[in-house]
Design brief:
Layout lengths: L3 E6 L7 H13 L4 E7 L11 E7 L4 H13 L5 E3 L4 H11 L8 E5 L6 H13 L4 E4 L2 H9 L4 E4 L18 E4 L9 H13 L6 E4 L10 H11 L6 E4 L5 H5 L5 E5 L12 H8 L4 E4 L3 H6 L5 E4 L4 H13 L1 H16 L4 H8 L1
Helix pairs in contact: 2-3, 6-7, 6-11, 9-12
Length: 355
């Protein structure tokens, strides 16, 4: 096909976070199409395959202004535009850049979550009236429902695309606990550090690997810096830290034989997806998740882990012990969950692009 899909992902700077895995997944699914990827300046070092031209365009300081000028430029071209991690600002900037109604099937926006407030709902209704041809994709039924309720005419459910789950030829034994991804407070990093200190007090010897990568721009907040210092001074012998952003291969190697700790904040992740969750499912890693989060809702129907009401060290220790004792059974159920999720794909978007 001759269609060039313009993909805009300003925060993609490295292999860390969900941006890289999400864009990589899309590039693999759209392998018969040419893709131009407009990403952060650090993305120039990342290879997405022969059909993908990477434009390392965005800087953090000027990202909004750059988005406005890029949208204005790309809207003059006849190619579809896809924003994989869409935000409220993208709607504002697209409306400003267009200056008129955008044609149908030109702009596709993928919203991973939406927090309902009166102000935001009023804003969405205004944009829906001004730009009725925008194509809105949502990760969950509740995200989709918000946009439909606000008057958007072209809204589709597209569950977050996972890596295809692959069962190994033989079951793997438990190797270690795992905190994967960027070290962030809303992702339960402090609770993981509390748990390591708890393991020290109990004189436990459960191996744990903790990834302490910074966010997209190499930044930590003050609370996370304090927690990293606590972790480094804990003296827990079976602790292994991964301080740098890992290559895709090294990152994937963390999951087999692990129990993935996802003590994410319930308010922030009630209906918000996590790429780490899907990576865990793809590699047979059972989860311990905060009850009421998207992660917990994903694993509970399959028994692919344990959801805990509150992420206290005591609750986490009970959940971890339960999974270790029945690891092979949990692992099988994780693959079942991963296979079910993998049946949902990028076809929703690609079919719309072909219309």
């Amino acid at each position: 096909m001759n269609t060039i899909i313009q993909v805009i992902e300003p925060t993609l700077e490295s292999y860390s976070g969900h941006c890289h895995s999400l864009v990589s997944s899309f590039c693999r699914a759209a392998a018969d199409r040419k893709i131009t990827l407009w990403a952060g300046k650090g993305a120039e070092r990342i290879d997405f395959g022969p059909g993908v031209t990477v434009q390392p365009y965005f800087s953090r300081r000027f990202r909004l202004f750059q988005s406005l000028f890029l949208f204005r430029r790309l809207l003059r071209e006849p190619f579809p535009m896809f924003v994989p991690t869409a935000r409220r600002a993208d709607l504002v900037l697209l409306n400003l850049a267009a200056g008129k109604q955008i044609p149908r099937n030109r702009v596709f926006l993928y919203f991973h979550w939406v927090r309902e407030t009166p102000d935001k709902l009023h804003f969405l209704r205004r944009i829906a009236a001004r730009q009725p041809n925008l194509v809105i994709l949502g990760t969950t039924a509740s995200v989709v429902e918000v946009f439909r309720r606000c008057g958007f005419a072209h809204v589709s459910l597209m569950p977050y695309p996972p890596t295809q789950a692959q069962r190994p030829s033989a079951a793997m034994s438990f190797r270690h606990l795992l905190y994967a991804g960027a070290a962030r407070q809303v992702k339960g990093f402090r609770q993981v550090v509390d748990f390591v200190e708890f393991l020290v007090r109990k004189d436990e010897k459960i191996p744990i690997k903790v990834q302490v990568s910074a966010d997209h721009y190499g930044k930590y907040d003050a609370a996370t810096r304090e927690d990293i210092a606590r972790l480094c001074s804990s003296g827990y012998a079976p602790l292994e830290l991964a301080a740098e952003t890992l290559s895709p291969e090294d990152y994937a190697a963390l999951f087999p034989g692990s129990i993935c700790l996802q003590l994410y904040d319930r308010a922030d992740f009630r209906d918000r997806v996590s790429g780490v969750t899907l990576d865990a499912l793809a590699h047979g890693s059972p989860l311990v998740a905060t009850a009421g989060t998207w992660m917990a809702k994903l694993i509970e129907p399959f028994g692919a882990g344990v959801a805990i009401a509150e992420p206290t060290p005591e609750n986490l220790h009970r959940a971890v012990t339960k999974i270790i004792d029945g690891y092979s059974g949990f692992q099988d159920r994780v693959f079942d969950a991963g296979q079910a999720q993998a049946q949902k794909s990028w076809d929703v978007l690609l079919d719309l692009v072909n219309e």
